Amino acid sequence: ETGVTQSPTHLIKTRGQQVTLRCSSQSGHNTVSWYQQALGQGPQFIFQYYREEENGRGNFPPRFSGLQFPNYSSELNVNALELDDSALYLCASSLVGINYGYTFGSGTRLTVV
Amino acid sequence: TQLLEQSPQFLSIQEGENLTVYCNSSSVFSSLQWYRQEPGEGPVLLVTVVTGGEVKKLKRLTFQFGDARKDSSLHITAAQPGDTGLYLCALNRDNYGQNFVFGPGTRLSVLP
To answer: Structurally, what CATH architecture does the domain formed by B6-111 represent?
Structure first.
């Protein structure tokens, strides 16, 4: 089975720009979640998508938005980038249910300068 | 306020030693997971526990979910350098799906 793949692996953007990060879910998984992990911290929940609709959101402003496509791949879009947006962005796919865990991708390292 | 606390924050031990790390919350959760993350990689799921008081073993790792489903511990026996990494606990706030809150992690270094 294929795992979760994310692209790009690294990205440098200028403050005020927009960025799109991409994720391909593990085969058979129908839920995708995005997390932001700042250096030295645990992942922070951004939002989750199930059946192409947002199914929960963390404490992130509206300039963080996402999409899930029929093939369960996903995008994370961030507008008006700020310096504090510099972090590792992790995509995780799973099946629905409390007994299921996440399969994480290796992440996209975003640096905002 | 920190929803989830993990202790210790850092731990450095010699190969062969035993260790225990802790995860504590003031809230009750439907399930708890432990992950291990290596530099430059995403977290890898180690275990999911659902029932209060549940104990699971994974080779040299023993995971326990507290009776009140608000805390957990991870015990490693005879630690090896390959156990080095960031150990994250994650608590599920959703009773049906996944809405996981991650702790800040315990960074473990096992020296040969």
So the answer is: Sandwich (2.60)
The tens-digit pLDDT sequence of chain B (112 residues) is 457 899 999 999 999 999 999 999 988 888 889 999 998 899 999 999 888 899 999 999 999 998 888 899 999 999 999 999 999 999 888 777 777 889 999 999 999 9
Q: Give bridge partners of residue A89 from the DSSP assignment.
A: A36, A108
Distance from CA of A41 to the nearest CA of B (A): 5
Residue A85 in 3-state DSSP? helix
Residue pair A1/A26 in contact by the 8 Å Cβ criterion: yes
Burial of B41 (0-12, 13-18, 19+ CB in 10 A): middle
Best mutation target, A54, A102, A103, to test chain B (most B CBs within 10 A): A102
Q: Is A62 left (phi over 0), alpha (psi -120 to 50) or beta?
A: alpha
Domain boundaries, chain B: 6-111
